[in-house]
Write a structure and sequence with these properties.
The complex is a heterodimer. Chain A has nine helices and ten strands. Chain A is of the alpha/beta class. The radius of gyration of chain B is 21 Å and the shape is elongated. The chains are: A alpha/beta, B mainly alpha.
Chain lengths: 249, 246
Amino acid sequence: MIEIKNISKSFNGKEVLHDISGVFHKGIPNLIIGASGTGKSVLLKCIVGLIKPDEGKVFYDGRNFTDADINLKTEIRREIGMLFQGGALFDSKNVEENVRFPLDILTEMTPDEKLDRVNFSLHRVGLENVNKKMPSELSGGMKKRVGIARAIVNNPRYLFCDEPNSGLDPQTAILIDDLIGDLTQEYSMTTIVVTHDMNSVLGIGENILFIYKGRKLWEGSNKDITHSGVKDFDDFVFANKVMSQIREK
Amino acid sequence: MLFKTIGRYFIFLGALFTNREKFKTYYKLVMEECVLIGIGSIFLVVLVSTFMGAVTTVQTAYNMVSPLIPDYVIAQVVREMTVLELAPTVIAIIYAGKVGSSMASGLGTMRITEQIDALEVMGINSISYLVLPKIIASMMMYPLLVVVAGVCSLFGGYLVGTLGNYITPTDYVYGIRFVFQEFSVFFALIKSVVFAFLVSSISSYKGFYTRGGALEVGVASTQAVTSSVIAILIADYLLAQLLVGG
């Protein structure tokens, strides 16, 4: 479980996040949603420690990450897997080396054990016979899947996904969502997904935190989104025609 | 602003040595960087230094108009210029243009494509992991490149000097050996280590803190070369003053 308490962050005097608190549960996908520029990615970066919040704290299973010393921070970070928006695969390494990277750095596994684990992770995300391909030879969806394989290869306790569906066609986006949902359950991870994709919200949004202009406006599950009672949230959810028609029915 | 940048640069250097990874990891990375830097630069270094020696010989011969000055002085001048300035300093400027810009753009691209963030999230000290091997490899390889440059420059001078009838082979070899001070070579190697450190650390610093997109990577790369060249020239003067100054 990850808990955030009263997170605030400003850049050059402009407040991007204001007093955000919330709990992200283990074993279910937790979604941070909101329109572009509302501070979702900044919040995610505050949670993983890439940005230090001005105020507030982040707790990983009760461990204070914000005020942790370098050793505890490193220990917690080594329990984290993260999928970045663009995949963030290392250009100079092939798929196998990319996925193996956390094992090379963080474990004492033998080369055979590492290879088995890499192949298992790639198989788990539906990729095979791509070990020797370079990232530049992969499609957007494949890059995301390699990114997920790299994120889960070290059996992380916490999985973070920043806009996992951006730039993908609807079918691939659903595949990625399902994969994140399945992996979260399978490995009992605490997963946080940042997205503005309504398909993800409807598909895997078991715990949703809605951010609007840097503030948390609503929290609930995908079952509750049609009767939130929050105008700004409704405007976001029912912005497209399909969702509007669903509401009307 | 300048003091802030310098302060940040020193903090960056300090971060090289904190929370490091296993020795084995660095060994592999350093070897990879050595190949990239050394093999990747050797052709340019050989080409530039050979012509540098050749031109220096022609220019010196052209200016030696007095019949009282013996011909071997041409070779002596070429040697002194090569060992003291041309090989370590001029090649350092070329090195900054080739290797420095490559380091800055490589790290800048890693930054804007979130590859550096990916390392940080894994609990890896990205500065130490990415930059330390570049600095070590640079400090190992650049002195070797300077030695190659020195030899090629003297050889270029020999070729042009003898083929162009500016100096006889015997005079050239005599001039090269005449009143030779070993300290000059030692001084050149000290300079080369310092320049290698400056180019690799400044270029890495500029690349590592790139913000924005592709345009900013280009800007960082240009700034890396400019800052490195300025640092080389300042360090060149300071070292000359410190080690051979009166």
